[in-house]
Amino acid sequence: MRMIVVGGGQAGRSLARLLLERRHEVCLIEKDRARCQKLADELDAAVFPGDGSTVSVLEAAGARRADCVMAVTGVDQVNLIAAQLAAGHFGAKKVIARVNDPRNAETFRSLGITDVVSSTELVVQLIEQEADSAHMHLIASLNQGKGEICSMNLPPDTAWEGRALKDVDFPKGTLVISLIRQGKLTIPNGSTVLHAGDELVAVAEDRSRKALHRVLGEVK
């Protein structure tokens, strides 16, 4: 996945290192040129000098092709503008913004930035979730992140080929609500037979998401 990190401070550097370890393609944007050089020497990532809250710099960093843009500078205004540009102007698939002052969190959400975190640890947690769910797509977040509606396509060599939905040992806290096959949506029941390529849409508690991903990802 192509990741863009806005901000090369402690949070940004830690995120970039984690993402590189997970073999993601990383582009880091940092305003301070001296720090840029240090980051370029330290990390195997593309480092862009400039203001990550401007269209030109985000464009140069490849925001139009980004799977996820993370604005994690120490300035909330910069993070908000960068996140809004990434989501609205460039159409990034996923946008995460760091809030240094927790009182600003609701302002971010009211302006359309739903994935807001107020500490480096929470940012890392979100990124780990993204990496673990590379083939699971978030459709909607429920109850302030405590649950979600997500979808996943069964792999070509799925272990569930020709098996009925009732045969799948779904983890507690999950419920399949629809199945999409060749563009046609159906509401499945226990006797619905599964095939490779089927897209299953499910409601899952946050604590059950990883287990659901493992079950649906089982192969022969």
UniProtKB/TrEMBL annotation:
Q: Name one GO cellular component term.
A: plasma membrane
Q: Cross-referenced PROSITE patterns, in alphabetical order?
A: RCK_C, RCK_N
Q: Which residues form the RCK C-terminal domain?
A: 137-218
- Molecular function via GO: potassium ion transmembrane transporter activity
Q: Which UniProt keywords apply?
A: Ion transport, NAD, Potassium, Potassium transport, Transport
> What are the residue boundaries of the RCK N-terminal domain, all occurrences included?
1-118
The protein in question is named Trk system potassium uptake protein TrkA
**What species is given as this protein's source?**
Acutalibacter muris
